[in-house]
Amino acid sequence: MDKDNRKPNIWKSLTLGLAVLLGIVVYAYGAEVTRVNLGELQSERRQESMVRVLRALFRPDLLEYDQVLEPRVTPIYVPCPAGGVPEDLGDPRSGGYITVTPACGSPGDVVRVEGFNFMPNAEGPLRFVPGSDPENPVGLGQLFANTDAQGNFSMDFTLPNRESEDVQYIRVIMRQNEGAPYFTQNAKDTWDRIVETVFMALLATTIGTVLAVPISFTAARNLMKPVRSPIASIALNVIGWLAGIYLAYQVAAWIGGFTQQYVSVLPIALASVVVVPIIANFAFRWAVPVEDAEPPTRALQIVRNLVLLGIAALGIYALYALAGAMSTLGPQLARQFSGVAFMGNFLFRLGGILDLLVPTIAALMGGGALGGLLARVGQQATERLPEAAVKTMNIVLAGLAGAVLAALFGAFAEWVYQFGNPVATLWWPAIIGAAAGVLLAVLTQPKATLGVGIALYYVIRTILNALRSIEALVMAIVFVIAVGIGPFAGMLALGLHTIVSLAKLYSEQVESISSGPMEALQATGANSLQTIVYAVVPQIIPPYIAYTLYRWDINVRMSTIIGFVGGGGIGFLLQQNINLLNYRGASTQMVAIAVVVATLDYISSVVRERYT
Amino acid sequence: MLQIRNLTKVYDSGVVALDDVSFDIPDGQFLAVIGLSGSGKSTLLRCINRLIEPTSGQILWDGVDLVSLSPEEMRRMRRKIGMIFQHFNLVNRSRVLTNVLAGRLGYINPAFSLINHFPKEDVENAIRQLERVGIADKANVRADELSGGQQQRVGIARALMQDPSILLADEPVASLDPVLAHSIMKYLELINQEDKVTVICSLHFLDLVHRYADHVVALNQGKLVFEGEPKKIDDAKFKEIYGKDAERVG
Ligand SMILES: Nc1ncnc2c1ncn2[C@@H]1O[C@H](COP(=O)(O)OP(=O)(O)OP(=O)(O)O)[C@@H](O)[C@H]1O
Ligand SMILES: [Mg+2]
Question: Which residue of A158, A313, A506, B193 is most buried, as measured by CB atoms within 10 A?
């Protein structure tokens, strides 16, 4: 404070003045580039269309009636013919009729049109029909005639500038609503689409949440920082993951191929779905005892791992069987119970998705298993072997892992840019990767541990931030190309965006938990998975629920406009109506969006209150 | 027998929290660790179960050097070392029973932890331990609905689930009133005498030390400044431990 006062005042004023000047310049330029133009707002043309649109928006196209129409014409001459007006032959139809007096005139003359004997309290357009055909659909003017309680009306009509020697007509089409109102086609379409919209948001939120939870743990600094491993363990982990993914994918595809003929037979499939889990359960109980007070012997451990491998293979088969059972059972159910056919279809669809996903699931599990196993081998080798041996092992393994990783990047680059030059895209990266790995192994102490956790943390954070900066709308455009126009594309786009943004928000919650319970569980000898399940998860459940609901809100709102780029949902209809200038139709969609968003907002606030 | 040999801990910040500390703890001893705030008591206790990695030195337990164990071996070893904390460190939103069962996690196969499955004996044992500390009726209450004294008893029950040979207690009564403090200390005494568990307990109040401990080590700025029976702490020793300006109270 004191120090500020001692500064020369002139400087302060000068900087302030400069700041103000700079501000003015910035905003002036902003107004220029955003083309602020209030004059346009005041132009009559704009105001007229604005009023028209606003009026349409306040009359959503929701309900309609059956209408009785009573079209009537009366002849008129413009200008008056030299030989006088010919005798009107009269309208033979019963019901209402209209007269015009005088029955001729010059353009601009005002004539009186009267209607009698119409339906009471009806309304209809009153138009000048040019040409001599009374059925001519063209009608000039903007007047509407409204009948009184007796079914009569009377109003002035200005003759338009349409001169003709022939007879022309003045026409009224009286209409009246009849019967009970019913929903317009537009309203029905809106309902269909809003249901689609809500479920698109629901699926996207569900899938996003399920995948974001595990990712969020790997993006939390406090969990990742303590994860350290020796070089051999890291290198073997990388190699194990890649090999495991590849092997398990192949094995799963192979199992899928040769069991295909069996699992499409419903009894076999159903029997497998029941029997295999029972067998697997018994085998699992033996291979994984609930408590293990003493470390198992090496031989026992190997046998157990082999049994687990068998269980995994059986599990893959069981998943295929489940997929097959669902795929065959679904359509049958749909045929039998047509009322809830969508349940059958859902079963069928789930079966298809499962069938597609099995190799991926197997690949991920295989990668995790082999990666984990080899990492343990590396860890133990590092602990047991003498330093010189460890150093050699590190150099070999790190070189190998580096080469494989870099070659993988090279292959990706090759795929993207299509260089068509394997020396540049495969061998050079492999050599450089190997060199980097070897260098790392040479430079570090043989038994030292590296902070893989924190490195992984930065990689995942970076990917999340990069993906998060892409709007869901843009992602939808990509997915529309990948899977075609429709709600599926929108769901995928919203799902992906949900994963990355929730993972970020969740991980911040993980970072802010109290570390006491984690420390306590660690002290009991719980491993890191157990520590997460028992000490971290209970603490993050309330914020996770809150964020999921918040995201659900966002997804509902996003899904209403994702149709603009072809992502399905109500936005598709809304955009269509706006482009067709059908503002009353668009208004229905906007009302629907408002109702849905408000309702879900309310529901989520109730849930949030209850569970947090 | 637990033997601490030349134990040194230098934090990344450069603080020397333990400076060449050596002493022995016979099985079944009730050892009090005293010293000013910041003297390194918590660091010492956490080095024993390696929640904190010592910079150098050895911790020999029946001849096995804990410091040189691999992470997996240490995890198995920790199951025999219970720990209770000043702030209880319970999982607030979980039930008391779940908190107590968590003490058993080290023995449970991780695959079963995912589905929150514990063997029946463990659940029965958890109830028994809760009975022992007198709060069996609270088994299904959320941990944060308990009072401080009750929470610490849950902490003790959790440690007992491990069937420990050593119990580390880091200022277990510092956030409790004097009456509760005695009731908690009595449980520790009971565990020490009935179960023959070695108790290593850091304490702030000398009257508690005199009342419960068989043996005392005192730290000052990471250095061991006293080791012996509680009654041997005379005024001169006291000033050495707590500084020249300290006054004896109580
Ligand atoms: N994680 C850490 N990083 C850096 N310095 C630390 C860390 N933990 C403790 N210290 C420092 O180490 C010294 C010993 O701390 P310690 O917590 O062991 O003391 P204490 O005797 O338990 O104190 P108190 O009675 O207040 O609990 C203190 O100077 C403290 O500031
Ligand atoms: Mg402390």
Answer: A506
Q: Is residue A3 part of a domain?
A: no
Which ligand is in closest contact with the Cα of B40?
A: 1
In A308-464, which ranges are E strands? 449-450
Model confidence over A71-98: pLDDT tens digits? 888 888 888 887 777 766 555 557 788 8
- Within an 8 Å CB–CB cutoff, is residue A90 touching chain B? no
Asked if A96 and A145 touch (Cβ cutoff 8 Å), the reply is no
Say which DSSP state B32 is in: E
Clarify whether residues A40 and A173 are in a common domain.
Answer: no
**Which residues crowd ion ligand 2, with CB under 5 Å?**
B 42
Instruction: Return mean pLDDT, chain A.
Output: 88
Question: CA nearest B22: which of B60, B62, B70, B49?
Answer: B60
CA distances from A610 to A40, A183, A199, B91 (A): 51, 37, 23, 20
Question: Which CATH number does the domain housing residue A601 bear?
Answer: 1.10.3720.10
User: What residues form DSSP beta bridges with B34?
Assistant: B218
Q: In this structure, are A328 and A261 located in the same domain?
A: yes
Indicate whether B211 pLDDT > 60: yes
- Contacts of residue A2, defined as CB under 8 A and 6 or more positions apart, other chains included, come to none
Size of interface A-B (CB pairs under 8 A): 109
Is A4 part of a structural domain of the chain? no
Contact A524 B91 (CB under 8 A): no
3-state helix, strand, coil in chain A (%, to 5): 70, 10, 20
Domain enclosing residue A483, as ranges: 185-212+471-612
The DSSP secondary-structure symbol of A340 reads G
Here the tokens at position A353 are 């998705």
Q: Taking every pair of C-alpha atoms in chain B, what is the biggest distance, in angstroms?
A: 58
Q: Where are the beta strands (DSSP E) in chain B?
A: 2-10, 16-25, 30-35, 56-61, 64-65, 81-84, 166-170, 198-202, 215-220, 223-228
Q: What is the CATH class of B28-46+71-242?
A: alpha beta
Side chain identity at residue A480, one-letter code: V
Q: Spell out the domain ranges in chain B.
A: 28-46+71-242
Q: Whose CA is nearest to atom 22 of ligand 1?
A: B42
Name the residue with tokens 């399940």.
A533
The count of structural domains within chain A is: 4
d(CA B48, CA B77): 11
Q: CA-to-CA distance for B116 and A349, rounded, in angstroms?
A: 32
A267 interfacial to chain B (CB closer than 8 Å): no
A590 and A516 within one domain: yes
* pLDDT above 70: percentage of residues in chain A: 97
SS (H, E, C) A189-257: HHHHHHHHHHHHHHHHHHHHHHHHHHHHHHCCHHHHCCCCEEHHHHHHHHHHHHHHHHHHHHHHHHHHH
Whether the CB of A453 is below 8 Å from some CB of chain B: the reply is no
DSSP state of A525: T
- Cα B15 from chain centroid (whole Å): 23
pLDDT band per the 50, 70, 90 thresholds, residue A1: very low
Nearest CA distance, B99 vs chain A (angstrom) = 8
Task: For residue range B69-113, list pLDDT tens digits in order.
Answer: 988 889 999 999 999 999 999 999 999 999 999 999 999 988 888
CA of B36 to the centre of ligand 2 (A): 9
Structure confidence by residue, pLDDT tens digits, B94-104: 999 999 999 99
Partners of A175 in the beta sheet? A69, A123
Q: Residues of A numbered 530-569 whose beta carbons fall under 8 angstroms of chain B's beta carbons: which are they? A: 530, 533-535, 538-539, 541-542
Compute and round to an integer the Cα radius of gyration of chain A: 38
- Banded model confidence at residue A377, pLDDT cuts 50, 70, 90: very high
Task: For residue B222, give the ligand 1 atom closest to its CA.
Answer: 14
